[in-house]
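[Q] Does anyone have a clean C-alpha cell version of this?
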Amino acid sequence: MNNIPDISSAQHKANPHPLYARLRAEAPVVRIVYSDRKPAWLLTRYADVAAALKDPRLGKDPFRVLSAKERAEQTPWMPSFLRPLTTGMLDRDPPDHTRLRALVHQVFTPRRVEDLRGRIVTLTERLVARARARGAIDLLEELALPLPITVICELLGIPEADWPRFRAWTNRLVELRTPLDMVRALPSLYMMMRYLRALVEKRRRTGGDDLVAALVRAEEEGSRLNEEELLAMILLLVAAGHETTVNLIASGTLALLDDPGSLDRLRREPELIKPAVEELLRFTTPVDLATERYTTEDVAFGEHVIPRGQRVFPVLGSANHDEQVFESPERLTLDREPNRHLAFGSGVHYCLGAPLARLEAQVAFPAIVRDLPGLRLAVPRASLTWKPSSILRGLTRLPVTFAATPIYSVPRAARPTAAGLHP
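[A] Here you go.
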C-alpha cells in the first residue's frame, strides 16, 4: 500500500485509527519505511498481532537473530555508553529473558502491588486536593505524571530531588525516533547513564532496602546479573514504570471528557472501575506499537509471508480496535465484556508492570471523576497535541478546569520499599 504516513509523528498519534482500519481492510501485513529510515513490517489485525506476540520464531535479540549485515541494515546506531539500552529484558529471548524477568517479577506480583495501595491512595488524594484548591491544572503534568513517577522512584530508591531530572531524561529516551534524535539526545542520555552508574556504586557501598539495592545484591552473586543488565533493568523500570501510566491516565481522562455519558456513569457507578480501566486501556492503548521483533525464519500471517531476518512491529493500537474482535470498537463501553485487549502485550514479554499500572489507574480515575466536579477541558479540543513517538501514544498536555473547593488535609502513609527483597 502506498501513502502510509509516518506512524511515529504527532499528527498520526492524534488519531491513528482511520489509518489502522484501512490497513486492516486492505493491507494487514505491510512493509514500510519506519521513522528511523529503515524497513519494517506492520501487523494490524488482532489475530496476527496476538499470534506474533507469542510466536518464538519472532525473536527480540537482533544479535541472536540477525547477521552482522542485517543488523547494520535494520537496527539503529547507538553509542557504546548506551549499550545497556540493548541488553534489557525487552531485547532478550529465553533463557536470558526468563532469568532477568525472574529477578524483578516478585516485586510486581498482584499481592505485592496491592500492598502499595495505601501509598497510591494517599498520593492521589494529595494531588487532587492541591488541584481542587485551584480550579484549573494541567492534569497530565500535575496528576497523571507525579503519581506513577513518585511510586516507581520510591521503589527504586531514587532521591526526590532527582525526580525532575529523571523525567526529563526518560522523556528524551522514549522520544527517540530518528538518528538525528539520537544525536540531539546524547548529552542527556550520557548524564542519565553516569547518574545510574553512580547510584549503583553507592548501593554497593551502603546497601539499602530499595529495588536498586536488591538488584545490586543479585549482581554480586555472580552469573545471574551483570552490570550492563543491572543498568538496563533500572532504565526499563524507570521508563516503563511511569510512561505507560501517565499516558493511560491523561488519555483516559480525555476519552471520558469526549464522552460525557461515560464520565457521568463512572461517577455514578464507581463499582465499574475495574472493567472501566480495562476499556480505557483498550480504547487509548498507551503503547501503540509493541517493540520490534525479528523473524528467525520465514513466518506466515494468513496469506502473507514475512521473510527471515525482517523487523516486525505488532500494532497493539490497531489490534485493540479490530472490528472482527470488538463490537463497535470506536465506542467507549465501560462494562465491555469480554474485553481481550492487548494493551499490555501477551506471551513471555507481557508487561511486567501491568498490576501496578492497573492499580494506579483504578485509584486515579475515581478520584478524578468524583473529586473534580464540573471537570472540562480548559482549551479547545482541537488544540491538544500528541507526542511524536516510535512506540508510545500520549498527550503533551491536558489543561482542565473544575469547580474550586477548599483544600483538605490528607494523612501520611508509609513509603513503599523493597524491604526484604533479595532476588
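[Q] Thanks! Anything notable?
[A] The radius of gyration is 21 Å.
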